[in-house]
Design a protein that fits this description.
Layout: E1 6-8, H1 10-13, E2 17-24, E3 36-38, E4 42-51, E5 54-68, E6 75-89, E7 97-99, H2 100-109, H3 125-149
Antiparallel strand pairs: 1-7, 2-4, 3-5, 4-5, 5-6
Bound molecules: zinc ion.
């Protein structure tokens, strides 16, 4: 697994095209969070070429985030997908290479949901809902008691 994927601009400027299909290491994500981690390879495919002084990168990427389930607190896998077409002015690129791995990592991070649940719907949800209903009734009873005291 590669930890980086750079696009060499030299051959593109003369009219070439680069096609890529790579497995990138999960270390492309620079995250240090208690409830978010990346352990599986990131699949990245696409192509890059230069038009009118712009680098054009069309890409499709898939990754798996590990997040803590909001219901049962266990780690669960959350599939992430990002695809699109990105344009960068060659004048804005320092050096002769463009690091697509960093770009794709940022795009995938935008797809991370604010909260996660096992398989999209936690099997423990029913237990929690029962508990939540009970505590709602309790707080209602407390509120009614408060009213009677006034
Ligand atoms: Zn869960």
């Amino acid at each position: 697994m590669e930890e980086t994927l750079t696009i060499a601009l030299g051959q593109l400027i003369t009219g070439g095209q680069i096609n890529f299909d790579e497995q990138l290491a999960p270390t492309i994500f620079d995250v240090d969070e208690a409830e978010l981690a990346f352990e599986q390879a990131v699949h990245l495919t696409g192509e890059a070429y230069v038009v009118d002084g712009n680098l054009v990168v069309s890409f499709s990427s898939d990754a798996t985030a590990k997040m803590v389930c909001a219901v049962c607190n266990e780690w669960c896998d959350v599939p992430l997908r990002s695809k699109g077409c990105h344009t960068v002015e060659l004048a804005d690129i320092k050096g002769d290479n463009w690091d697509i791995a960093q770009f794709v990592a940022q795009e995938l991070l935008l797809e991370v949901p604010t909260y996660a649940e096992c398989q999209g719907s936690c099997p423990h949800r029913d237990d929690i809902e029962k508990y939540l209903r009970k505590s709602d009734e309790n707080s209602l009873a407390v509120a009614l008691e408060g009213l009677e005291l006034e």
